[in-house]
Design brief:
alpha+beta; oxygen-dependent coproporphyrinogen oxidase; seven-stranded antiparallel β-sheet; 9 strands; 42% helix
Length: 286
């Protein structure tokens, strides 16, 4: 399977996901922005804004070529080389604080016909956790992985817990999911099918959770806590996220790279008793 074919598969996936999320919140405004990359290729960014369910969402596709592979592309060292890269990234920031934030990405890198790999994963970041939602999230991930390799889930879950960790806070960003990188032992067809299934599982499971929680009544205290915890999301993306670093190091489209940020965030050095109560309840799951 050639790079162009993989890129087109991801491009079609991207268009399908944009349609699904658009239908899930018909009050949201969808802004589609095609863009070109200076060294070759480009992508399309879909921003979903001001909906009844989705306060802000980012569904991005890219397929680019470059002369030097940024160091952030892979956790292990790879000698600098020209590269081709394609993938999809999704972040959904919900309006209702009882609906969790979610994230997904799948990606393919190619340095030559013999040097290539796949990566990706998805994770869930609730503000007010429901144990049934967390169980559903992990059960869906486990069932997905079992279709391809019985060892995937345990390994990928541990990878996710280790990766989405804020060292300066000594806490995980959310309740986890799966995270994988440097996947190259099987055929490209194998990993294309796996990553397509990753996207489907993410969308189906997340929307099931959204539909259960989107109508739950909330007040300003709940919203304030959501905005406060969104700060953790921003901190991780700016300090640790390799996707963000790769985009910036490869001189990608900055507005697309940073559009995964939440629309409104609050930081506070003084915590109210209610905020502490909400945070203690959440940290039992982090």
């Amino acid at each position: 399977m050639q790079y162009k074919e993989i890129k087109n598969i991801y491009k079609d996936l991207h268009q399908n996901v944009v349609k699904i999320f658009s239908k899930s919140d018909r009050n949201a405004r969808v802004n589609l922005t095609p863009w070109n990359y200076k060294n070759g290729g480009g992508g399309e960014s879909a921003e979903i804004m001001n909906g009844e369910v989705i306060e802000k969402g980012a569904v991005n596709f890219s397929g680019i070529t470059g002369k030097i592979l940024p160091g952030s592309a892979l956790a292990t060292k790879v000698k600098g080389s020209s590269f081709k890269a394609t993938g999809i990234s999704i972040v959904i920031h919900p309006n209702n604080p009882f609906v969790p934030c979610s994230h997904l990405n799948v990606r393919y890198f190619e340095l030559s016909k013999k040097i290539w790999w796949f990566g990706g994963g998805f994770d869930l970041t609730p503000y007010f956790p429901f144990e049934s939602d967390i169980k559903l999230w992990h059960m869906s991930a486990k069932q997905l992985c079992a279709k391809y390799d019985k060892n995937f889930y345990k390994k990928f879950k541990n990878n996710c817990d280790e990766y989405f960790y804020l060292k300066h806070r000594k806490e995980r960003r959310g309740v986890g999911g799966i995270f994988f990188d440097n996947m190259k032992l099987e055929s490209k067809d194998f990993y294309v099918n796996f990553t397509k299934d990753v996207v489907k599982t993410y969308v189906d499971t997340y929307l099931e959770i959204v539909n259960k929680r989107k109508s739950k009544k909330f007040n300003q205290n709940h919203k304030d806590f959501q905005l406060y915890r969104r700060g953790r999301y921003v901190e991780f993306n700016l300090l640790y996220d390799r996707g963000t670093l790769f985009g910036l190091q490869s001189s990608g489209r900055v507005d697309s790279i940073l559009m995964s940020m939440p629309p409104v965030v609050k930081w506070s050095t003084k915590k109210s008793a209610l905020l502490i109560k909400y945070e203690n309840a959440l940290k039992k799951y982090l």
